[in-house]
Structure formats: C-alpha cells, structure tokens
Amino acid sequence: ELRHRASPWQRNLGYPLAMLGLLALTGISVLIVCFHVLELLLDDAAMPRGIQDASLGQVSFSIFGSFGAALQVVLIFYLMLSSVVGFYSSPLFTRLLPERQDTPLTKIIGNCVSLLVLSSALPVFSRTLGITRFDLLGDFGRFNWLGNFYIVFLYNMGFAGLTTLCLVKRVSWAVQAELIRAFGEDG
C-alpha cells in the first residue's frame, strides 16, 4: 500500500537508488572483510588486538586517509542499522517491536536492553571484521578471544559467506521474479 501511494519519482528513482546504495555498502563491507581474511592469513599483525600508543591525529586508521576514515564511519553506521533491522525482523523478536502510543513499560525496557547490547557489541564487531582498527576509547582489543586466530578467522569467513549468500539470494530472487513476471505476461 505504501508503494502505491509513493510518487513516481520515489518509485522510479528513490527506491532503485536506495537499493543500489544498500548493495554497494554490502559489497564494500564484504570486500573489506575478504581483504581482512587475506591479511589474517598472511600477517599476524592483522589480528584485532589493542593498538598500543596510537594517539588520535598522529596515526591514520585507514590506508586511504580521510576518504577511508569516512568510508569506515559510513560502514559502521550501515552495520549498526542493518543489525537493528535484522534484530527486529527475526521471528523471535518481532513481538518486541514498539507500537505507537501502545507500548507497555516491559516492552520499552526490553527494547532499551536490546539496543544497549547491540550498540555495545558494535565496536567489537567492526574490529573483528577488520572494518576499523580504532578502539573507540573502550580498549576492546583486550578480549582474550580476539587473539585467537581460529575464532577471528571463522567469524570473518562466516560473515563474508553468509552476507554473500543473502545478497546473491536476494538479488537472484528479484531477478527470477522479474523474469517470471515478464515471461508470464507474454505467455
């Protein structure tokens, strides 16, 4: 119903551009994770341990300088938003979604706790995937399991594999639906 009420500009330009942006951000994050996997295999320094004596402004946290730092910020916000959307889309937590002017206090507390857990996990998540090396003033690199190569490697491989699988499934499903619609109308 919302799609039918949208203006033609929104339907023909806004939605495709938003979809291309989401595909680009997902593709870039998968590429960064794949490069991080290669770094893990070739160099022990790629492990997401804490950075010793790296002051802000003296050391660049990105190979590409300011552009790379801005890209890291955009990717972290994208991962944050996609994890929140994925959390509320999962069948287990759809009942936790707040309702306008009809949300009980226990549901509000559950949402606060859920968002707090997701936001607390985001720095460790982005460091483990190799999206950023910045510690966010929490020194999250001190976790013992971040020094375990197998856990970090499998975490990165799982993210890259499952994200690619979801991306291919979503894109191929949309292409199949359009082909069926196009050939179904002719036949």
TrEMBL record:
Transmembrane segments annotated in the record for this chain: 12-38, 58-88, 108-125, 145-168
Chief place of localization: membrane
Subcellular location: Cell membrane; Endoplasmic reticulum membrane
Annotated GO MF terms: transmembrane signaling receptor activity
Bilayer disposition of the protein: Multi-pass membrane protein
GO cellular component entries: endoplasmic reticulum membrane; plasma membrane
Keywords: Cell membrane, Endocytosis, Endoplasmic reticulum, Membrane, Receptor, Transmembrane, Transmembrane helix, Wnt signaling pathway
Any one biological process term the GO annotation gives: receptor-mediated endocytosis
Family affiliation: Belongs to the LIMR family.
Name used for this protein in its record: LMBRL protein
Phylogenetic classification of the source organism: Eukaryota, Metazoa, Chordata, Craniata, Vertebrata
Name of the gene: Lmbr1l_0
